Amino acid sequence: MSASISRVSRRWLASRPAHIRTMATKGPGSPRPAPTSSSYSTQPPNSKILTFARYSPWSKSFPGTWRTRALLQSAFYAVGIVLATNYVDSVWFPPETGYASPREIKVAIEKLKQAFPEEGRVSTDPVILTEHGSSENSYHPASPHAVVVQALSTEDVVKIVKIASECRMPMVVYSGATSLEGHYSGVSPGSICIDMSGMNNILEIHEADSDLICQAGIQWEDINQTLKDKGIPLFFPLDPGPGATIGGMIGTGCSGTNAVRYGTAKAEWFLNLTVVLPNGEVIKTRRRARKSSAGFDTTKLFIGAEGTLGIVTEATLRLAPLLPTKVAMAQFKNVEQAVNAVQDILNSPYGPHIQCVELLDDKMMEAINVAGVTTKPLPVCDTLFFKLQGDEPAIKLTAKTVQTIVKKHGSDRFEFASTDQEAEDLWQNRKYALTSTMGAHPGSRCWTTDVCVPVSKLPELVYETKKDLAAAGLRSTIVGHVGDGNFHALILFENDGELPKVNDAVHRLVHRALDLDGTCTGEHGVGIGKKQYLAEELGEGTVELMRSIKKAVDPMNLLNPGKLYPDKN
Ligand SMILES: Cc1cc2nc3c(=O)[nH]c(=O)nc-3n(C[C@H](O)[C@H](O)[C@H](O)COP(=O)(O)OP(=O)(O)OC[C@H]3O[C@@H](n4cnc5c(N)ncnc54)[C@H](O)[C@@H]3O)c2cc1C
């Protein structure tokens, strides 16, 4: 051993500067040359340490006693054990989320497969996981789920929720999948997607009470078609995107073209909800009575909650009588004229006969003509489409009033569709607005945004937004539920490189709406895309109240985490 030390030392010394050689051979007591700046930089460390550092304590050449070796080996083992434990801990028990580790996710999936052994009820197919965690209508970050489970009853949902909470797995409810702000994207490291689309039955229809009870996964169009097929002259008037379901409509606090006359999901259309809470408890928010003063309105707690407080499995819906409907159209030189006319019409004695007022800007009218999906082309200018409701005399009088008022506000073209076919043809322009925007710009993609302002502020919002989009070099069409001050810009782009430009334009649009005392979303909801604006719009106090409610109902933050509530700085 000593021979090998001296060999090593000699080799090392041979390569060192003279003063080090002197010190090493004559001992530490020998006089030391005065340091120069360069000699400081080459000053060797303790030669013994250097010699130790050169060999592993497991090496036969290690220059130390067996005690030193054993000590160093134990130290290495100890450090190794600490690092390995930390690694395993961070993978199995991710510290920042507190959610299931990959091993626990596998356990949860096994438990789900045992609870739902039927073919196709539990899927881990990567295509299905991705489809259920992302949307072609949203450009917000999205991740796939770890597993998708089809629920068919309230009991199924309870089973899933219990397994999820045992395994600390986030849950995301998925229904019609038409929401636009990344509402149902997956949660890292792995979420259970509860697919409600199979819960699509009407359970009871009470024609005499004008209500029905249905499962939450049914589409609003299917409800209305069923009522029509059964010859029941009632309908459910909330009309968001095609394919939207009752659960998703409650989740987003939706509305649609009919909001002028029938209001939004915040109104009286949901009499009672059956909800599975994050702890697996099933509650009903009310009974079937048309109204109730029994405490505060817990139904509303779940409207617009975006699946973060509970999973709605059944709902009692109020229905409205089906009324004869006709369609009219008026064209204007600018949006200001159009909006002023709408306010006058809605405030007239015939206002209650207006079911919808929709604004399509000149670019949208151009796109409709180019796409060619409607029966006849119309002049390219800012246009209002109306649906008028009532018996024949009421519709005639309403149409006359509308014609007089739009003329007063500068409209140079008014059309009234007196037959059902004419009405259908005219309304096609509104119905195919989105498809026409895409059809007129083949190969483009479309980012649909939604803001809402007090109606009188709408012309300013539309004018400034069009100017801003043009300055940014972006093409866009505009469609608005103008009776409510709600408007959507459909911004077109070709590739991912343009996304930041579109994103910035949307950001400026939202701030423009907030500056006009409006909201970042009139009907599409918050999801991931709008949560950054909530504190600015509502104030920190309101956002904190929302967070407190969430914490009280879902202390483990398992239901749709990462959506709706703004991230804390
Ligand atoms: C072409 C088009 C036009 C549109 N027009 C309109 C419009 O005019 N007005 C309008 O308001 N919206 C419109 N939308 C947006 C969309 O249709 C609505 O947001 C709709 O309410 C979403 O319903 P959904 O069933 O698709 O919900 P999903 O997209 O499946 O889910 C939406 C949210 O609700 C939650 N959720 C779903 N089911 C439940 C449940 N059972 N319990 C608790 N939470 C649940 C989800 O977790 C998610 O957070 C449009 C969309 C498109 C694509």
From TrEMBL:
GO biological process assignments: lactate catabolic process
Enzyme class of the recorded protein, top EC level: oxidoreductase
Region (Disordered), start-end ranges: 20-45
Reaction(s) catalysed by this chain's protein: (R)-lactate + 2 Fe(III)-[cytochrome c] = 2 Fe(II)-[cytochrome c] + pyruvate + 2 H(+)
Main localization category: mitochondrion
Annotated GO MF terms: D-lactate dehydrogenase (cytochrome) activity; D-lactate dehydrogenase (NAD+) activity; FAD binding
Domain of life: Eukaryota
FAD-binding PCMH-type domain: residues covered: 140-322
Biased composition (Polar residues): 35-45
EC number: 1.1.2.4
GO cellular component, one term: mitochondrion
Keywords assigned: FAD, Flavoprotein, Mitochondrion, Oxidoreductase, Transit peptide
Family: Belongs to the FAD-binding oxidoreductase/transferase type 4 family.
UniProt-listed PANTHER family: D-LACTATE DEHYDROGENASE, D-LACTATE DEHYDROGENASE, MITOCHONDRIAL-RELATED
Protein name: D-lactate dehydrogenase (cytochrome)
